[in-house]
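Much of what follows relies on a compact textual record of a protein's fold. A complete example follows; check for yourself that the lines match position by position.
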Amino acid sequence: MEKKDIAKENIFKKSAKVEGISIRGYDFEKGVDFSKILDSFSSTGIQASNFSKAIEIIKEMRKKKAFIYLGYTSNIMTSGVRETIKFLVKNKLVDYLVTTAGGIEEDFIKCFGDFKLGEFNLSGSELRDKGINRAGNILIPNDLYVKFEKWILPVLKKFEKEIKTPSDMIRVLGREIKDERSVYYWAWKNNIPVFCPALMDGSLGDMVYFFKNSNPNFTLDIASDTENFNNSSIGKKTTGMIILGGGVVKHAICNCNLYRNGADYAVYISTAQEFDGSDSGARPDEAVSWGKISKEAKSVKLFSDASLVFPLIVGKAFFD
């Protein structure tokens, strides 16, 4: 066989029959219909199709009346996605919240004033001189932390005997903020538990530190909190996880579902990669190996910034 024939045989190798959805995007000749544009993502491929898969999984979670854990990192509360979370909590569309210290405190801090849009490249040195903190392209005046401290320390003092665990603290603060803009006001109002496994890692931890200095007998029982949280999955007929970001939030929710031999549904939304072996970047199948997601579960990881896609997912999965 001549070389050219060998080359052609290799290049034009006969294909096996491929079944499935044909790749096709939205036809703008039909005009602009944003709902149909989002629907078209299912056949667009790449992350657009994972976006559609996330919607379908969440819809099935709701249809099966799954007990839904919603986890998010602090930057979600820093951003305007806070209002999306508030909607879900206010309308009792999720069952358990899991976040970090920043994901708690910034909800309350926003009740004392607005965060402002800035730029990612603003000088940290110049902002420091002006008393302005930067989280990405979001600017947070330091004065808001002063207002937060003036509010929270008297609350801790008044209700010290009621606060035994981090979850108790969040519940009391949600009750006492008396502000319907607050996620945790609605969590208290609707009796939706909030678990914060790293309460000390933020301004909220600073407030506990300051309060502890003048109230040496004050303690927070994280062991009881963790017991209650892990027990929440046991005996549930169906559970689902929606996790925005990674870190301790992601691991806590996955580990909680290990106690029932894995969640039935899982949607991860994250930009983290898996090449470094971190749990933050891991895809759902890694959690299957640990028993944190069921072998029969429906799951997807959407590689995206949650601020871009989560409001759209809520619009499709919780309304359609």
